[in-house]
Amino acid sequence: MSVATYSYARSSALTAGGLDLQTSGGCGTHPRFFDGFMTTPQTVALGLLAVAEVARARYYQRTDWASLDPVVTGSDDMLRFESFSGCCGVYARMDVLPSGLDGERPEHGTTNVDVNVPLQLALARVGGLDPLHLAVGPQDLTVSTMDGTVVERKVPLPGRWLRGFAQVHAITAGMEPRLRVDAAQAADFLRRLPKDRGTLWVVPAGRGLRLTSRPVPGAVCLTGTDRLGALRALVRHAGTLTVYGPAVRPGSGPVASVWELATPTLRLSLTLSPEPYRGFSGEGAVLASLAADDVADAADRISEVLAQAPTLDADALAVATGLVPEQVRSGLALLGTAGRVGYDAAEATYFHRVMPFPAAAEKLNPRLAGARALVEAGAVTVTADVAVVRGTGATYQVRLAEGAPAGCTCPWWAKHRGDRGPCRHQLAVTLTGAAS
Question: What is the Cα Rg of the chain in Å?
Fold first, then answer.
């Protein structure tokens, strides 16, 4: 696993002068994204604590990883704070909206922020009348020459988090708002949730929500009810809870979902993977798009546009780049492998992160690398509506439907049936051009 080292000029702290979040990496050594007051201090403090809570949580398997540092993106007129849980099955994001910021316009860029334990304790003490000044980055722009203690931590960030970023944007882009309730109903629902790690479904019930054991049209999947715990502290300040999900029908399997609390000044969302043991880093939602022939060119065009306009919807990206929708999806998928693209379900727009990592589709997606190896070895033979792929120790048949892979005889496909994307044999067929 890759390891990134983050160097902070000093520890983040909440002092009489305000909340000073130290940064590492981004558009400079210690970039400064924002300097101003929060219009709703307590809600921002609670939201940041929720993002930090997810970053240190392990909802499936306990590990010995250190707490990971949340990522903050200045995106033209808002600040976004993001994290993944240690198991990578929960993605948290707080969007501080323009109405929540009283200060200079946020600069466009992305960095890691130091949210340490003393800072978390201080944030927990912020009351409703306490002013909160937020400085994302050192006060002095010449921080690299400032005296002070340097805090260094090695964080296993790039591998799982980058794969998670790539998958989350692709998965959530296909979701629609399915359920919406007011804060009182949301609090009641969260309070009544059983401790259950199985698959449940949430449906409307009058003005509120209720659980059912089977999927029906309009329902939203919920597996691992404890994974919604980070919402509880903020719910009393929220106006609404909106739940997003893909379309389901009777017999549907577990799917991902987005749970979003909205206040007048911020949105806090938790995106849950289909099942607690399934981290987003292992999903395969972008693999088919990454196998497209023109993916690199599409990614370059989209990157140029997003550098000028940090948030755009898919149609606007197609118009601005001259790409067709399929090419836009492929380009976004490749940029996602470098963590450069996120998706805002509330606005139905993509947003740009400024990340220092190169797009590395195959390095971060072993299935795609394995598929290319099969093609290079000449292991793919296409005949009529079936492709034969010689794998390791066995030969598999990939069924084609209208020229596209529609199934495989390998054990991996038999287990997942497309729930986690295509297998390497199907990807190999796509790469040969047979599935064009």
Answer: 22
